[in-house]
Design goal:
Layout: H1 4-25, E1 31-35, H2 42-52, E2 57-61, H3 66-75, E3 80-84, H4 93-102, E4 113-119, E5 122-128, E6 131-136, H5 148-152, E7 156-159, H6 164-176, H7 184-201, H8 207-223, H9 230-240, H10 254-271, H11 275-289
Parallel strand pairs: 1-6, 1-7, 2-3, 3-6
Antiparallel strand pairs: 4-5
Helix pairs in contact: 1-2, 1-6, 3-4, 6-7, 7-8, 7-9, 7-10, 8-9, 10-11
């Protein structure tokens, strides 16, 4: 199966994300709000671009209170602040007010935004000239906060929700580069099995599931000492982290489907010991390819 078309589509989306990040880091925009499903390289794309371009930044993950957010801004008054998983922040009225101040446009046309934080002991103010990048799984409208509309007008907003075909293409691209200390041929084998298992279960395939889980399970198995084969661990991980497909897999061109079938056979043999199991999985995969078992959610 040729993934060139899907990789080209993905690269176009990645390039827009990089341009938005560049705009924030060079003062053309005060903020960028990037949202989409988890595990699809949103954070990696943003942070990797900043690192590659040697752009000073502060990457903050997890929950932040209003006071903690102000501390981050105070410590990085002219840098790029990347706030990862901002759901909790946007649910805190104080944090939202701080963000609004940091993302505002001064009436005098300058880059200096006064960001205040008031406490019982007085008011602290930061002259902020940097930018803020917010990464989350939710759209702005899903935060159910009355002041979110004001935030929306102050940032560039982009959704990143690649198709199942695009995610699969990206995973095989990563595999062929030999990631995380795993030889390319072995990583492709892991990718083949993971894709097959996700199709069989109707589970949404993600880059995180491949890099952080399936490859990890394979490395554990290669290290020796495990009671189970790596395929058992991957199958258990997929079952535990089940997330249904957000949309159906599009029908593949005939040539692509034939190539996929050929690649699936070794993975089915490795992962399913009996002939009956192999026939059942093969049939499930054929139905999924025709759109018979993948549904919109």
């Amino acid at each position: 199966m040729s993934y060139d078309r899907y990789l080209k589509e993905l690269e176009e989306e990645f390039s827009v994300i990089r341009d938005r990040v560049w705009g924030v880091s060079n003062g053309f925009s005060n903020g960028f709000y990037l949202h989409g499903p988890p595990g699809i390289s949103k954070t990696f794309t943003v942070v990797n671009f900043l690192v590659d371009k040697s752009i000073p930044h502060e990457h903050v993950q997890g929950q932040l209170t209003g006071s903690a957010l102000f501390d981050v801004i105070e410590e990085n008054p002219d840098g790029v602040i990347v706030l990862d998983d901002v759901s909790a922040i946007l649910g805190d009225p104080k944090a939202v007010q701080i963000l609004l101040a940091a993302l505002g446009s001064p009436p005098d046309g300058s880059r200096i935004r006064k960001v205040p934080y008031r406490t019982a002991r007085g008011t602290r103010v930061v002259d902020f000239t940097g930018g803020v990048i917010l990464i989350t799984n939710l759209t702005l409208d899903e935060h159910h906060n009355g002041v979110i509309a004001a935030l929306k007008s102050r940032v560039d907003v982009q959704e990143f929700d690649p198709t199942p075909e695009q995610v699969e293409a990206l995973i095989f691209k990563i595999a062929m580069e030999g990631p995380a200390g795993v030889a390319a041929e072995e990583a492709v084998t892991v990718a083949e099995f993971l894709v097959l298992e996700c199709r069989r279960r109707g589970t949404r395939l993600t880059v995180r599931l491949f890099v952080d889980h399936a490859l990890r399970d394979y490395r554990m198995w290669k290290a020796g000492g495990l009671e189970n084969d790596w395929t058992v661990l991957v199958r258990a991980t997929v079952a535990k982290e089940f997330v249904p497909q957000r949309r159906a897999v599009r029908g593949m061109p005939t040539g692509d489907q034939v190539a996929t079938d050929r690649r699936s056979v070794p993975a089915i043999r490795r992962g399913f010991p009996t002939l009956e199991q192999r026939r059942r999985v093969w049939q499930e995969q054929k139905e999924a390819a025709r759109g018979g078992s993948a549904t919109d959610h």
